[in-house]
Specification:
This protein is about 35% helix and about 15% strand. With about 625 residues, it is of the alpha+beta class.
């Protein structure tokens, strides 16, 4: 056991695991410190990965050579592509997962990753250099010191965590696990600003006590897809495919709401015992019935926790009300009349550090070589945490090896949007990614994450040559398909019966396949199925490549327009501002603009333009002073 490492990662949640894997795969000697080796990559909340915009992030992590996509596929019990009825910018993959298998696979992959060591202990203190400007190591609860060139903090909800159930308060970072004490206090003493946030989780139920005949069935996709761009990662694809497990849907009602209200006088949220703000887009059930009092019912998703367990996650019923109130309310939900609870829902309050104190590399501004990733930065969600961990691990490795940092831009990845939002705008409530946050979302689709990011990651030594070869084959294939569709014509006699069946106008003469495909009710798969000549030509391409080509053809004009807009923004990103730029010398700038420029220290005009409260006039003044 060595006491000196290149990088130490504190915390083994989704952020910590991706950080350790990325840094180790790039060649750093990594120590992953966790308070409990049995809860590595624990799914603390719902047993699912992906969803709206989150699924795009998981695909981006996979394209970069991260592990989340592979593990999500291998542990999946159900797959769904959300928003298929909308445009491809909105398509978002999601898996329901086996909770125990997910964590087990993460530990297995980390243990098989060279350069990763583990240590089970709490970190109570950071070792700071004598000059107070950089990080040098950690001190654990057992008094052991480990030295490192860089440290990544991924403490999740454990920093001074407090669990709330009704009037009960229990110190802890997760049910049954201790909170982490000491790091917040030390960082605050060094000049960092901290805050409090809250999140919650619903009760877990015994599925044997539920009556599913009173619920709606929600199955997976008939033709399942997967997250990872690699082969053989999904149990639902291939000759040995297995059947997916369905979820179910039920609803609250007025009786449920009335029972829940009887617990409000003991609610930690309504009585002021919780100071931190909770996630706006994943509110507790008591918050929902208060904020949306006009609604007679709220949807609940009944999610199985795995292949071989009877434990059920009641998605949509997050609560911190007293246990007896939770039990009574649950048993008034259709199908839950005899429900048995495994453990109650609870809220957890924890420390975070406003992310405006970070650089875009996720390194802190106050201490060199110290990186923050995950909920410590004010985010919520496994996917948001995992992608931050990936980027922190990459940048920590690059920094200690004197290599240029990796900063993904807003037009390159949802990961770039997330980090830019956090650092340039900050957040005072748990940040969750949505497609609406990305102004270039048509460029940031789930289908092309490998094309966008794998070549970049390969140059870093993270995504291997096999991944790069797959991307190059996919690009070449899509180009060939597009070329064929643009230069070959469909026979009216062959396609008119099909066009009539989909209420599309007949062809009066031979027409380019490209033009036929541009019709709203026509897909490439349908054309290939109807046209034997096209079927023969397309038989050499896989489904993924054909889908890629179809999207590029159908949305060609929109994609080109979005690329033009992105290029305009890129030009602003290339206009650099010197670190010592004196904003106070510019008399034309207002006091608010000067204050925010000094606080956020934008490195480019593009970054300056995205600071909350900065208007176009302020940017124009800066451009004048920069000679532009």
């Amino acid at each position: 056991m060595t006491n000196e490492y290149d990088i130490i990662v504190v915390g083994a949640g989704h952020a910590g695991c991706e950080a350790a894997a990325a840094a180790a795969n790039m060649g750093s000697k990594v120590l992953l410190v966790t308070m409990n080796m049995q809860t590595i990559a624990q799914m603390s909340c719902n047993p699912a990965m992906g969803g709206i915009a989150k699924g795009q992030i998981v695909r981006e992590i996979d394209a970069m050579g991260g592990y989340s996509g592979i593990i999500s596929d291998k542990s999946a019990i159900q797959f769904r592509m959300l928003n298929r009825s909308k445009g491809p910018a909105m398509w978002s993959p999601r898996t329901q997962n086996d909770r125990m298998m997910f964590a087990s696979l993460w530990r297995e992959m980390l243990e098989q990753t060279p350069n990763v060591d583990f240590w089970q202990d709490m970190v109570k203190e950071l070792i700071i250099s004598a000059d107070g400007i950089s990080i040098e190591g950690i001190v654990t609860g057992m008094g052991i010191s480990f030295k490192a060139k860089a440290i990544v903090l991924t403490n999740g909800t454990f920093l001074n965590g407090i669990i709330h159930i009704g009037e009960k308060q229990i110190g802890g970072g997760r049910t049954g696990e201790s909170a982490s004490i000491g790091i917040t206090e030390q960082l605050v003493s060094l000049g960092f600003v901290s805050g409090r946030m809250k999140t919650g989780t619903p009760p877990r139920i015994d599925s044997r006590s539920l009556d599913y005949s009173k619920m709606e069935v929600q199955g997976g996709d008939e033709v399942a897809d997967k997250f990872s761009y690699l082969d053989n990662t999904s149990p639902f694809i291939g000759p040995n495919s297995i059947k997916q497990i369905p979820c179910h849907v039920s609803y609250t009602n007025q009786q449920v709401h009335d029972i829940l209200k009887t617990g409000f006088e003991k609610s930690p949220m309504f009585q002021g015992r919780i100071q931190g703000l909770g996630p706006r887009y994943c509110p507790s059930i008591e918050d929902k019935i208060t904020r949306f009092s006009e609604r007679e019912r709220h949807q609940l998703f009944i999610e199985p926790e795995g292949w071989n367990t009877v434990e059920i996650y009641v998605n949509g019923f997050s609560t911190s009300l007293p246990i007896d109130v939770q039990q009574k309310a649950l048993q008034l939900i259709p199908g839950f009349e005899k429900a048995k609870m495994f453990r109650p829902g609870y809220a957890i309050e924890y420390d975070y550090f406003p992310p405006t104190q970070l650089k875009l590399t996720l390194e802190t501004q106050l201490l060199d070589n110290l990186y923050f990733a995950g909920q410590i930065n004010g985010t919520t969600g496994y996917e948001e945490a995992a992608c931050q961990g990936l980027m922190a691990g990459i940048n920590a490795h690059l920094k200690i090896n004197n290599k240029p940092a990796l900063i993904l831009s807003r037009h390159q990845a949802y990961i770039g949007v997330l980090i830019d939002d956090l650092v340039m705008k900050g957040t005072d409530e748990p940040y969750r990614m949505f497609t609406s946050r990305a102004e270039y979302r048509l460029l940031l689709r789930q289908d092309n994450a490998d094309i966008r990011l794998t070549p970049l990651s390969n140059k870093l030594g993270l995504a291997n040559k096999d991944r790069l070869n797959r991307v190059e084959t996919k690009i070449d294939g899509a180009n060939k398909i597009i070329n064929y569709f643009k230069n070959n014509s469909a026979d009216p006699n062959t396609l008119n019966p099909f066009l009539e069946s989909v209420n599309s106008a007949h062809l009066s003469q031979k027409t380019r396949y490209f033009n036929v495909l541009s019709r709203p009710n026509v897909s490439a798969a349908q054309l290939i199925e109807q046209d034997t000549m096209l079927l023969k030509e397309m038989s050499v391409f896989d489904k993924e490549t054909i889908e890629q080509a179809e999207i590029l053809m159908k949305y060609e004009g929109y994609i080109e327009r979005e690329k033009e807009n992105a290029e305009k923004q890129i030009r602003l990103e290339e206009l650099f501002i010197k670190p010592d730029f004196n904003y106070n010398s510019i008399k034309s700038l207002g006091a608010e603009a000067i204050e925010k420029f000094i606080k956020y220290k934008p490195q480019t005009i593009g970054q300056a333009s995205r600071i909350s409260g900065i208007n176009p006039a302020d940017i124009s003044v800066l451009l004048v002073y920069l000679g532009r």
